[in-house]
Amino acid sequence: MKVRRILLHIGLIITILISIFFSALIWFNPAMLQHDSKETTNTGENNTSVSKKTLSDVFLPLQVTYNEDNLQYQIPSSKDYLIGKVWKVMKKWDSSSVSMKKYKNETDYLTFLKQNNMLLLNYNSPITVKIFNKVFLQKIKGIENFKFNRIMIPVSNGKYLYLLNDQTKEVCTVTLSKMKVTKIQTYLKSKDVDNVKVEVDYYPLNNKIINFYVGSVQFPKYSYLYNKTNISSYVSELLNPSGQTSISTKLQKNKTIYLDGSDNRLTLNDTTSAIQYENYAALDYFDEANSGKVKTQKLDYYTHLKESLEELNIIGTTPDNLRFDEINAEDGTVTYRSYIAGFPIISDDNYGSYQIKIMSTGGKEYNLSLNSLQVPVPSSQYKQSLPSTYTVLRELENKGYSTNKIKDIRVAYKWQKNQSSSLVVDLIPTYYVYLDGHWSELDTLLTGN
Question: Which domains does the chain show, CATH number per domain?
Answer without folding.
Answer: 55-199 (no CATH), 219-224+377-447 (no CATH), 228-372 (3.30.310.160)
